[in-house]
Amino acid sequence: MTAIFTLTSGAVVFNSENKILLKKDPNRGWELPGGQVEQNEMINETVIREVKEETGIDIKLIKFCGISQEMDSGICNFWWLGTAMNSKIQTSSESLSVGFYDVKDALLLMKNEDFKKELIYCLENEGEPFFLSL
Question: What is the pLDDT of residue 122?
């Protein structure tokens, strides 16, 4: 039996005030920006494209944080830290609202416990990349 996983790439993006970029998805609520890797696209390029499409923010990647695997849904999420290169946020069909928030406020806005766990793992990751099974 062949296992098929969807690959996504997302980021914890900081602005110059050390606040985190969040977007409000129409279905999932507040979350970190990111999305599905397309055919012939590098995983690190995916997150740059997705953050721009969903929030209007251009980013520079700082480091790779790790991978979270959603066993029930067959999704592998690649996580990065990045910095915002501009401050002009915009919404899209994938984001009802977009903003920069303190970590404490971001965790309060995010209702999905897995999303919170991924954010915390990215922020606490100072050594080797993490692997998290959800």
Answer: 96
Q: For the segment 11-59, what is each residue's pLDDT rounded down to a tens digit?
A: 999 999 999 999 999 999 999 999 999 999 999 999 999 999 999 999 9
CA gap 44, 55 in Å, rounded = 17
Judged by phi (left if over 0) then psi (alpha if -120 to 50, else beta), residue 118 lies in alpha
Structure-token match 């494209």, residue found: 49
In the CATH hierarchy, which fold is given to the domain comprising 6-133? Nucleoside Triphosphate Pyrophosphohydrolase (3.90.79)
> Which residues, in sequence order, are CB contacts of 87 under 8 Å at separation 6+?
15, 16, 57
The SS3 of residue 72 is coil
